[in-house]
Amino acid sequence: MPPAERPGRVLALVSVAVFMASLDLFIVNVAMPELARDFAGSSLAELSWVLNAYAIVFAALLIPAGRIADRIGRRRAFSGGIALFTLASALCGLAPSVELLVAARVVQAVGAAFLMPTSLALLLPAFAPEKRPVAIGVWAAVGGVAAAAGPPLGGLLTELSWRLVFLVNVPVGIVAVLLAGRVLREARDPSAQRPDLLGTALLVAGVALLSLGLVQAPEWGWGDSRTVAALAVAALALAGFAAHCARSASPVIEPSLLRVRSFALANLSVLLFMTAFAATLLANVLFLTDVWGWSVLHAGVALTPGPLFAAATAVPGGRLAVRYGQRTIAALGCALFAVSAAWAAWRMEAEPVYWSVLLPAWCVGGVGVGFTLAPLSSAAAASLPPARFATGTAVFTTSRQLGAVLGVAILVALLGDPAAGGDPLGAFQEGWWFIAAAAAAAAVVASAIGPVRLAAAPAAPASAPAPAA
């Protein structure tokens, strides 16, 4: 039976890949205290590059990877991405220094960049158009649950060794590579545009320098020449990137995609939401370990209800979006997340108030995650033409990861160095108010998304070889 007639197996396999790539964006958060102890002398700003190096490279390469996948074959690109991701995970687990760990994370991000756009591009043709919103909801929910599950799973693994945070990917990745050839149908688009290397370089430089300026500003000083130079060159690089995309024949981000209202606003909303989400995950872990003095395992277990609520509401959120509209449910999810952050900023204390403050906030935030990511993913992808599934998915996922980069960078700038003394509770309160503002802005943007028209079913690619048995 051809793989396209077994949508459940296709969904299961690509969901595993999405889970792995998304998990590694956030599972490292809970390992940060152990990394600081293992690599003595490294500051929070230096260690934050273990998170942001991955997210920046991942975000910048998603669209070029989607185009390469369209040209060489999506199943081939998917399998190669899993293999590279698995190898890099092993290198991360063996890294003897922060510098080598960051380098291995960059390689890991290259592999992940091929997984995300190809996963949805391989998934959508396996489902009829009317069933795609639910399939997209499951796909998005897996990524959201993986991100939210990072702290509790990371806490359990880090209790044994932080290296297991990376090594756990190896056996899963090997099994996924072996199954890809049996489950997935090959598809390609020989007419797909070539990757935009100049645009990719400008995007990497702009986001990396913006993150550098934000992260190092508390240590260097906001008026220091290094901070000013990093932010100024970042602005020039991002402006150059926008200008290049407007006039290039094969830009990283196609202006025509951004003229689709639902697609453009869903991208902006998810960027703002992920800014809040990524900052929340790191803030909660650091607050529990640095302010309340809890162990990594204790913190991970305490944060477990959040992912459980996200998992429980993700699929219902996708179904509610089909009934009431993506913008309604996504705006509700963003608003719930904003309320959870505002509650934490208002009521959190230096002494543990887990049951009365943190737990309710984290559970409401989990519902917000479940109600947000699936509808926004559906709004972004469902109205795209079949030939743009991979590229459009890459643009949307790029927006998610850029939001994660900004969230971590801005939070680190607000917190400064927790070990330097001062008022840690006040710094975290500022962080939570920032998170609430970002999520509220995401809700406003999501509410402006118009009706979403489902694209027609894609025809079977004429160039695709016979599926594997």
TrEMBL record:
UniProt KW S-adenosyl-L-methionine keyword: no
Membrane topology: Multi-pass membrane protein
Chain segments annotated as transmembrane: 12-32, 47-65, 77-96, 102-127, 134-154, 160-184, 196-215, 227-245, 265-288, 294-316, 328-346, 358-381, 402-420, 432-452
Location in or out of the cell: Cell membrane
Pfam families: MFS_1 (PF07690)
The keyword Aminoacyl-tRNA synthetase belongs to this UniProt entry's keyword annotation: no
Keyword field: Cell membrane, Membrane, Transmembrane, Transmembrane helix, Transport
Predominant cellular place of this UniProt entry's protein: membrane
Matching InterPro entries: EmrB-like, MFS, MFS_dom, MFS_trans_sf, Sugar_transporter_CS
Annotated ranges, domain Major facilitator superfamily (MFS) profile: 10-454
Protein name: DHA2 family efflux MFS transporter permease subunit
Species for this entry: Conexibacter stalactiti
